[in-house]
Design a protein that fits this description.
heterodimer, A: 120 residues, mainly beta, seven-stranded mixed beta sheet, 11 strands, globular, B: 114 residues, six-stranded mixed beta sheet
Chain lengths: 120, 114
């Protein structure tokens, strides 16, 4: 139980285009989902917290207009990298915390497999 | 900025060896400590969530201890197997206004040689 999928797993795009990444909780509901980014040889860094039905909260230094987050349902959050540039190339990974009463431990974040974004 | 450190960065052991590694965190900012195992091309797998000083948790051959007063957690693997090869991550939930947000260490890469 407590499975999170992420799509696509890998994307290559041209500079200036926008890329959407989906994060789905498959067997539980998640009021809160998180988006992280990992640059080479660095740790996972939290970008933003996504709350179902409300605006996402972004960590310091993360541009909200560049990284658009939508959490329209209890099982889906999307991250759109707008007007992507080579410096946005990174590994993006989401996690979801189960809402009480559903599968999974509510005190745990369950992760998707991540998305490797390469911007040419 | 919270500083979560893991050591060593990487570790090579022989099959059957027991091993352990460390996660250090600021003891003044603590709500919970998470351990994950991350195999290449897979999702990080949640191993433990630890909240109480002196906590000890076990899952098969893997166990973890927690010392919140001095700010560290140890992860132990008994009788390592090749399938234990992975990156082991720890993450701090500092609570308060940061409740729910995880600050990760850089991970310990474990390679178990047959």
């Amino acid at each position: 139980g407590a499975v999170v999928s992420q799509h696509p797993s890998r994307v290559i795009c041209k500079s200036g285009t926008s890329v959407k990444i989906e994060c789905r909780s498959l067997d539980f509901q998640a009021t809160t989902m998180f988006w992280y980014r990992q640059f080479p040889k660095q740790s996972l860094m939290l970008m933003a917290t996504s709350n179902e039905g409300s605006k996402a909260t972004y960590e310091q230094g993360v541009e909200k207009d560049k990284f658009l987050i939508n959490h329209a349902s209890l099982t889906l959050s999307t991250l759109t990298v707008t007007s992507a540039h080579p410096e946005d190339s990174s590994f993006y990974i989401c996690s979801a915390s189960p809402t009480g009463g559903t599968s999974g431990r509510p005190d745990t974040q369950y992760f998707g497999p991540g998305t490797r974004l390469t911007v040419l | 900025i919270l500083n979560v450190e893991q050591s060593p960065q990487s570790l090579h052991v022989q099959e059957g060896d027991s091993t352990n590694f460390t996660c250090s965190f600021p003891s003044s900012n603590f709500y919970a400590l998470h351990w994950y195992r991350w195999e290449t091309a897979k999702s990080p797998e949640a191993l433990f969530v630890m909240t109480l000083n002196g906590d000890e948790k076990k899952k098969g051959r893997i166990s973890a201890t927690l010392n919140t007063k001095e700010g560290y957690s140890y992860l132990y693997i008994k009788g390592s197997q090749p399938e234990d090869s992975a990156t082991y991550l720890c993450a701090l939930n500092a609570g308060g206004t940061s409740y729910g947000k995880l600050t990760f260490g850089q991970g310990t890469i474990l390679t178990v040689h047959p």
